[in-house]
Design goal:
about 600 residues, mainly alpha, 3 domains, two-stranded antiparallel ribbon
Length: about 600
């Protein structure tokens, strides 16, 4: 029977968190960084980061702000590669990062593996920051043991591990968003100019990671107004409402200053009417596709993603209005990035298919992220969730702690509602990552002293759930990106549920090379790969594929087929779907299945 007074003190929990969990987390991420081949977006991010440092420009990969790619490029600057900037185009709506990234991989074959590893390692501190703030918030709210539970959930989450090991902004945005809201909570508890300034700096850094967090400019004032209206005791303090309002204004202004500094103050205060927008909502009228303006045609790219952008017809719904001359207090590249992101969700760049449970279609589902959460979350986390709801209900938390829970769950719910409302496409479960740490901290309340006393069984269930999370996550490691829980069929059957970055993001070419080395009897090997890099760049011996005509089957031989290709993802009617009913004889990671078509006798 669990003792009702069982709790770790802060020193003990801190030693376990920072002396054990942090080193384990760093090791897990560092090894994944060595094992994954460049994922679909990574070479583009790295090239964009190099352009920031070497050219001082922010015109590549504008759909993501610059912080993470700039950090990723830092170690590569010790011996900067030469990039063919002649591939860069400047038409409104262009997406040149794909060709630039592909060109970088082709022209720097001897070095790109270690460039990528070093760039990934440079991003690991972002994930450590997220782990630390899970501990801090959980400990501050529910006690040190709860902080340890929240930190453990972050440390071993397969979705955090799979994405934090890459040069992508999702986990960095998650960690910095968590830090911003933690210190915003501190400002609500103890309003002051210093606390407001700190929140402003963190908010600015958060806005430099991912456009999702633009909602904070609405969410923070709403949360402040809510505490003023509903909790004038715990969250008020000695500061007058007028001073609090001025401090809130200060933190918003400081955040804008940090945001502008992150772009080198380039084209800040540009008049709104001077922008050329390509999204329907900002440009006015339908965006139109155009053929790529480049010498590299589509046949050189292994997947539609590497194609350059399709420039739309530039426009501006504000140009003829009274706000046309209004100076925009943020960098022009940030505004243009939001516009490009809007066009993506409107389907104006290229047709973006969505896939869920065997159905592929143009346009997404409002419930996609809820369904993906059920499939991509370890079953142990659902056990913890059930135990936490039971335990917190039994413990009868006070109104002040309900307000604290609201500060956690409102941001998580806002993120879910925001991304679920964008039904132009539903492809990336990683878009939901910024909600994760708030849920982890809320669930950690099951190890609070109140719950342990009121419902010790719930605390025990949470312990079992945590063990299940660790075992489930490590059972697929280092293929954490492809994690699916047992009910969803595990990573072996995950491609029947979700595709793209949820299982097949081009990360398994090194695994395919290992498989080929272990099977010398397997030539010729035909490869249908859906990432950005050519398999030949990884010394994988391949044979050119002759696509069959009509209903014919492929020629006899060995075939390595990406699960995206297997389902005709982004290419309905693809002949590669003919392999789907067949039984694979092997796999490389969980994203590439191996088939052997034998000779048919006379």
């Amino acid at each position: 029977m669990i003792r009702s007074d069982w709790q770790l003190n802060f020193s003990q929990a801190s030693v376990i968190t920072f002396g054990l969990l942090v080193p384990v987390h760093v090791f897990l991420l560092a090894w994944i960084a060595c094992r994954y081949s460049p994922a679909a977006d990574e070479s583009a991010h790295l090239v964009a980061g190099l352009r920031i440092w070497t050219e001082g420009k922010f015109d590549v990969y504008q759909v993501n702000p610059p912080l993470v790619k700039a950090v990723a490029a830092l170690p590569v600057l010790l011996d900067p590669p030469q990039i063919n900037w002649q591939l860069l185009t400047t038409k409104p709506g262009d997406r040149p990062e794909w060709l630039l990234g592909l060109s970088y991989l082709r022209e720097h074959r001897p070095r790109f593996r270690w460039d990528m590893v070093l760039a990934r390692w440079a991003c690991i501190p972002f994930s450590v920051l997220g782990l630390a703030y899970c501990f801090r918030w959980g400990a501050a709210l529910f006690g040190p043991s709860a902080g340890l539970l929240a930190a453990s959930l972050w440390c071993f989450s397969p979705n955090i591990l799979g994405n934090a090991a890459l040069i992508t902004p999702d986990v960095a945005a998650t960690a910095l968003g968590m830090a911003t809201l933690f210190h915003f909570r501190g400002w609500l508890l103890q309003p002051g100019w210093r606390n407001a300034f700190l929140v402003g700096v963190l908010l600015g850094l958060t806005e430099l990671t991912k456009f999702t967090w633009v909602i904070l400019y609405v969410l923070l004032p709403v949360l402040w107004a809510g505490q003023v209206l509903f909790s004038r005791t715990r969250f008020h303090g000695e500061t007058s409402l007028r001073q609090q309002g001025l401090q809130l204004l200060l933190l918003l202004l400081v955040s804008l200053d940090v945001l502008n500094a992150g772009y080198g103050f380039q084209q800040t205060l540009r008049p709104l009417g001077e922008f050329e927008f390509v999204s329907e909502s900002l440009g006015g009228g339908k965006t139109q596709s155009a053929v790529p303006d480049t010498d590299m045609d589509a046949s050189t790219a292994p997947h539609p993603d590497p194609l350059p952008g399709v420039p739309g017809r530039g426009g501006n719904v504000f140009r003829s209005g009274c706000v046309s001359a209004l100076p925009v207090p943020v960098p022009a590249a940030w505004v243009q990035g939001i516009d490009l992101q809007r066009r993506d969700f409107e389907g104006g760049w290229r047709p973006l298919y969505s896939y869920l449970n065997g159905e592929q279609r143009l346009g997404g589902w409002w419930y996609y992220y809820l369904a993906a959460s059920w499939m991509k979350s370890p079953l142990g986390s659902w056990l913890i969730a059930g135990a936490a709801v039971w335990g917190l209900w039994r413990s009868g938390l006070s109104i002040s702690f309900r307000m604290e829970l609201a500060l956690l769950l409102i941001p998580a719910a806002a993120i879910l509602v925001l991304i679920s409302s964008q039904t132009g496409f539903s492809r990336y479960f990683r878009y939901l990552l910024p909600a994760f740490p708030f849920v982890y901290v809320a669930l950690s309340g099951v190890w609070s002293p109140q719950v342990v006393r009121a419902a010790p069984g719930a605390a025990w269930c949470a312990g079992v759930g945590l063990l299940a999370v660790v075992v489930g996550s490590l059972s697929v490691y280092p293929q954490s990106l492809a994690f699916f829980n047992t009910i969803a069929g595990g990573p072996q059957q995950g491609h029947l549920r979700l595709l793209d970055a949820n299982i097949d993001w081009g990360q398994d070419l090194y695994a395919l090379k290992d498989w080929q080395n272990a099977h010398p009897e397997a030539p010729p090997l035909y490869v249908a790969y859906s990432g950005v890099a050519d398999p030949e760049l990884f010394d994988i011996a391949t044979q050119d594929v002759v696509l069959p005509l009509g209903d014919e089957m492929f020629a006899p031989g060995w075939y390595a087929v990406s699960v995206n290709r297997l389902h005709g993802y982004d290419d309905p009617g693809s002949p590669w779907t003919r392999f789907l009913p067949l039984t694979p004889v092997g796999r490389a990671g969980y994203s590439i299945l191996i088939y052997h078509l034998a000779e048919v006798g006379p």
